[in-house]
Design brief:
The structure is a single chain. By secondary structure, this protein is of the alpha/beta class. It folds into 3 domains: 11-67, no CATH class; 69-97 and 180-404, TPP-binding domain (Rossmann fold, 3-Layer(aba) Sandwich); 100-177, no CATH class. The protein has helices spanning 6-11, 61-77, 90-93, 100-111, 118-125, 135-149, 163-177, 188-196, 216-223, 306-309, 315-326, 344-356, 376-385, 398-404; strands spanning 14-19, 25-29, 32-34, 37-40, 43-45, 82-87, 153-156, 159-162, 206-210, 227-229, 267-272, 279-281, 288-290, 332-337, 360-365, 391-394. It has a 10-stranded mixed beta sheet, with helices on both faces. The protein has a two-stranded antiparallel sheet with strand order 3-4. The protein has a two-stranded antiparallel sheet with strand order 7-8. The longest helix is centred in the N-terminal third of the chain and has 17 residues, at 61-77. This is SIR2 family protein. Pfam families: SIR2_2 (PF13289). InterPro entries: DHS-like_NAD/FAD-binding_dom.
Length: 428
């Protein structure tokens, strides 16, 4: 028997790819990931397959994914009464969205020239910590510096620019790179929405809360012929009012006798907690309206002041709805997809639900659930998930999760066949 040296043991790294309480945990040894997808492993536990000669079989990536997906398939197979989804930046990255780290790199490219590193000059001008590549923190530093030291001018290669102008340029950069076209092939939002909307009409409507500015869920709704209740009027121009979230759509003529059976299918609520690329606040009456390609989209940009912005309408209404739904104490499931748990006000609402609502369950879907650089909040959730079956954590990309999310048998799947009316030519 060969004993492992101390160094060999220290070099073995086990990572969780699924956690759901004390008795449902799945770990892989020395895993490698490519764009969030598990590509190689050296071990898997628990795993005890043996060949016909009763010899242990070496586990593969396929084995790890198969077991993982079987566990979360069974978890989501139950038709939860109140189904909520929280979508973060990670859900858009599969279809062209950028992470905060990638946005930092784009900002570096914008200001860096052969003559000087303009982005470094900006950081030094506001006394920013150069060792931390965090665009949200830099924007917060620019805000704070301008507030207490004035809107100073900075010497860049192209000339002098005020801090306010630089901040506006960074906002424009974020807007540009958050503008994502509708995918032609890989469209996980469509695949996921298609399955979510098979729920019975008598079940509460699915509610999707997103922190992203893009229009991917709106595009997906069009693709699956769904109706979106998003807080805006059904008249043109579409104007925001929280009361529209209390409306629903029913079929009256020719409907069944029971009122609860009259709700039409494929309707869901969409709450955009940080605004949208197609929202605009008018200068005249300060109302929020939907408009194609507004010059200044109404969005909560990443910086510390975003928590203050969230207390203004329509963001306050969206956040209030989020908190209210998390408090529903009758079988409520929140699925967090691609959310890194870095927003304090969102975390506070989820924390309250976990602590105060016994009927609340949480699922975290993110390929980096067990990375070393995750947020403190994510680490706390992992500790709780190792003890409680109320929390499920899965290392999975949104694309693969949408593909393997179950189509529950108690749901109603509507398949509409194409109708073709053709006049056949007479053979006479």
């Amino acid at each position: 028997m060969i004993k492992k040296s101390k160094q060999m043991v220290e070099n073995e790294t086990w990572k969780y790819i699924l956690i759901n309480g004390k008795f449902k945990k799945l770990e892989v040894k020395n895993p490698t990931f490519t764009k969030g997808v598990l590509t190689s492993i050296e071990g898997l536990k628990p795993f005890d397959k043996k060949d016909k000669d009763d010899k242990p079989i070496e586990p593969t990536v396929h084995d790890a994914n198969e077991i993982k997906r079987r566990i979360y398939f069974e978890f989501f197979k139950k038709p939860f009464k109140n189904l909520l989804v929280l979508s973060g930046a990670g859900s858009s990255m599969d279809v062209g969205g950028l992470s905060m780290g990638q946005l930092w790199e784009k900002a570096e490219e914008k200001y860096k020239t052969d003559k000087a590193d303009g982005f470094k000059i900006i950081q030094e001008a506001v006394n920013y910590n150069l060792g931390k590549n965090d665009l949200e923190a830099l924007l917060s530093q620019i805000d704070g510096y301008a507030k207490f030291s004035g809107d100073k001018e900075i010497d860049l290669v192209g000339g002098k620019k005020k801090l306010s102008a630089i901040k506006d340029e960074l906002f424009e950069l974020i807007k540009t790179h958050c503008t994502i076209k509708k995918p032609e092939d890989n469209f996980p939002h469509k695949a996921f929405l298609e399955k979510l909307l098979q729920r019975k009409q008598t079940s509460p409507r699915v509610r999707i809360f997103t922190l992203n500015y893009d229009l991917l869920f709106e595009y997906a709704a069009t693709e699956v012929n769904a109706i979106v209740i998003d807080g805006f009027s059904f008249t043109v121009p579409r104007t925001f009012s929280g009361r529209f979230f209390d409306y629903d759509i029913v079929q009256r003529e020719g409907s069944k006798l029971q009122e609860e059976d009259n709700f039409i299918q494929r309707v869901f609520h969409l709450h955009k907690l940080h605004g949208s690329l197609n929202w605009e606040r008018t200068d005249s009456d300060k109302k929020v309206r939907i408009k194609d390609y507004p010059e200044k989209p109404l969005m909560v940009y990443p910086r510390e002041a975003k928590y203050e912005d969230s207390y203004e309408q329509p963001f306050f209404e969206m956040m209030a709805r989020f908190q209210r739904n998390l408090r529903l104490n009758n079988d409520t499931m929140l699925i967090c997809v691609g959310y890194s748990f870095n927003d304090k006000h969102i975390n506070a609402a989820i924390e309250e639900a976990l602590n105060q609502n016994p009927g609340f369950r949480l699922a975290v879907i993110d390929p980096g659930i067990d990375n070393d650089n995750v947020s403190t909040a994510m680490t706390t959730i992992k500790k709780e998930a190792l003890e409680s079956e109320r929390i499920l954590m899965v290392s999975e990309t949104f694309t693969d999760f949408a593909k393997h999310f179950p189509e529950i048998k108690t749901y109603e799947s509507v398949v509409v066949e194409a109708i073709r009316l053709q006049n056949e030519q007479s053979k006479d």
